[in-house]
Recover the amino acids of this structure.
């Protein structure tokens, strides 16, 4: 008998039939003897419907009011799932975030969990077979309903698992695990039985959107074993491992992440003096634009350097405007922008101990005649920016070259 | 500057346009200098939608889960109205029942308010121009969300007005006040400028469904001046009076209530001995069937009597079955049932001091050749049961005879 936290996303509870299917799955876990805390998202489409309702009455809706509105989505799905479980004869309870309570900061719409008091919840787990919790929401110290932003139900599940010292946190979604890369691009992409937290962080932040990145960080920090499974098919999914097994046993590369939603910006001829990077990136950060890759090369002439970074494509225009203003202040430097790029990354903890991954990667690009625009590396990944049109070709070539289809 | 509680029903917030119209009306009250607590129902149709959702996952849905589900209706409308008010530049707050808190008993689906702690609310009224409250809901002492059943938003508004010692509680609905009778039946039915609490209780319980009866009782008990107004048209509505003005000044009859949703049941030849009424009505009450009129005549033969009462028509079959069983135990008495009836009542506090109202009423029935099946009187009303087909004729004839079209 284990204490398991299960989380079901919006597509898993999209309609009555799927809620019944989820109830059946939970019922099986109960009958197997597990104690369960089940976190649910809103039925898919419901959050968007509520957001649209709010925007239709107010042009600049306050985040505080939107939280009251949007949090009803999870309240409805948690009550429906609890009803379906009661209908199967189980003793269950349904709770909103404030009832546990899950205390968050007051950043409405993107609140962060500050504290979870599980005293009452542990009591309920003595008398109920399962407790269904509305995900994505909490209560601020001022007593207001807060939401954690998109994907916050994953965070709720992981945080509850951590607070309860649960044996496992299972994230049920519409994919049956984490793959070596996107199966829509590479036919023989392979489901990984397990992956380390660090790899998962790189994989999800780089575009394999299986889990919300914050929930993975959280799980890693609090040593919560995390498993990604499909709520539609049977299977063991992918375990996101706690323990650092011997890296030598690991494959050199675990997976290939990629995305096409970034844009790159370059300032040429930046004076190669202390403070230059800050002068450029300071105003970008102040505008709340998140920067992903940053590359600075030693410049050739006059002790100047070229400074390049990538941002989300939606922030491209604003970032470009800021850079042009800065370049003017710095004496009219050249600014180059390119929104027509993509990024491919090889990820694997074993890179630490295996030399030559990067050079083998670059050879694949050379063989395919793909020009590399930017390179950035970390201990467990190598990222390369290329023209967007080459992305799928690059991913397929790398998947074959590193034999990722083989276990 | 007054402290006013306003309540808007489901049809008043049925869609975005109506929510904007309500916001405009509230905005005017704010600009006039009033401090406002606004109670809202769910957008019309929403409660039914949520109930249907719940029933679609569970054949016998638990009332506790249904409360979690259904209470989101008011949460959504309160947030939307608050957003619309913010959009008009007002500082407003939106609160659920549990946030105030409105403490109720644990009778899920039909909870009764036990306590309202207005300490926080009074604080909010210092810093906000209006506080929007989700009606119809509260929290039990176990910390569970409760709902008060249909019409509970009226009760919420009145209870808040009482707890806050508000200057007036305004119930906005789709009619512009309380009429002498249903204008759909009598063309020249007249809106009453005011009516006493006692009259209103008789009017609403007898079928003029303007206000939930429990909220009127509540308002009367706690001396909350109550006003019924239309949220669609301008006007002063009808004030439900606190003060007992000189009854002599009052018209003899304030209004005519009627309904066609009752059925009558008679047990003939009941032994005229103590306990007979209890033997008959005890089992009816135990089956949670509510009895409206009760009439017992002195019987002619063998010290027996005829015992007649009315129930809601939906309870007719069950009540008949119970009566047949009782009559068997009492030695095979005759049981007569009639679901094809209607009830007409004259209501007016001035009846106390004006003799002869009943006899004038009966003359109207005689003139129209309508046979009276049952009569029941109280201090401020006379109710008559007739065949259902005569109801509209009776109402029109009485309205004319008592000159209710004249102020």
């Amino acid at each position: 008998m284990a204490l398991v936290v299960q989380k079901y996303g919006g597509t898993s509870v999209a309609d009555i039939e799927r809620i019944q299917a989820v109830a059946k799955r939970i019922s099986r876990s109960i009958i197997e003897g597990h104690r369960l805390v089940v976190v649910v998202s809103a039925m898919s489409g419901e959050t968007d419907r509520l957001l649209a309702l709010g925007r239709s009455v107010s042009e600049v809706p306050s985040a505080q009011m939107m939280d009251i509105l949007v949090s009803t989505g999870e309240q409805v799905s948690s009550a429906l799932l609890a009803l379906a479980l009661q209908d199967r004869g189980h003793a269950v309870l349904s709770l909103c975030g404030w009832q546990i309570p899950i205390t968050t900061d007051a950043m409405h719409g993107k609140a962060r969990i500050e504290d979870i008091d599980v005293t009452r919840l542990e009591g309920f787990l003595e008398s109920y077979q399962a407790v269904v919790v509305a995900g994505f929401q909490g209560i601020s110290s001022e007593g207001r309903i807060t939401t954690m932003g998109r994907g916050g139900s994953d965070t709720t599940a992981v945080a509850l698992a951590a607070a309860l010292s649960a044996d496992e946190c299972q994230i049920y979604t519409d994919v049956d695990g984490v793959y070596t890369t996107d199966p829509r691009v590479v036919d023989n992409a392979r489901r990984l039985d397990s992956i380390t937290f660090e790899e998962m962080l790189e994989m999800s932040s780089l575009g394999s959107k299986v889990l919300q990145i914050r929930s993975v960080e959280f799980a890693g920090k609090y040593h919560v074993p995390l498993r990604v499974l499909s709520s539609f098919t049977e299977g063991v999914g992918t375990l996101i491992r706690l323990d650092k097994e011997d890296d030598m046993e690991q494959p050199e590369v675990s997976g290939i992440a990629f995305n096409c939603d970034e844009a790159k910006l370059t300032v040429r001829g930046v004076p190669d003096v202390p403070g230059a990077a800050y002068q450029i990136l300071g105003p970008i950060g102040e505008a709340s634009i998140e920067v992903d890759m940053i590359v600075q090369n030693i410049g050739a002439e006059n002790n100047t350097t070229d400074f390049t970074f990538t941002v989300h494509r939606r922030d491209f225009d604003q970032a470009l405007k800021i850079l042009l203003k800065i370049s003017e202040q710095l004496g009219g430097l050249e600014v180059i922008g390119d929104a027509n790029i993509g990024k491919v990354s090889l990820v694997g903890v074993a890179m630490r101990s295996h030399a030559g991954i990067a050079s083998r990667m670059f050879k694949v690009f050379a063989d395919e005649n793909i020009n590399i625009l930017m390179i950035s590396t970390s201990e467990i990944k190598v990222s390369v920016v290329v023209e967007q049109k080459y992305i799928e070709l690059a991913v397929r070539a790398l998947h074959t070259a590193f034999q990722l289809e083989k276990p």
About this structure: Chain A touches chain B through 39 residues (CB under 8 Å). The mean pLDDT of chain A is 90. The radius of gyration of chain A is 23 Å.
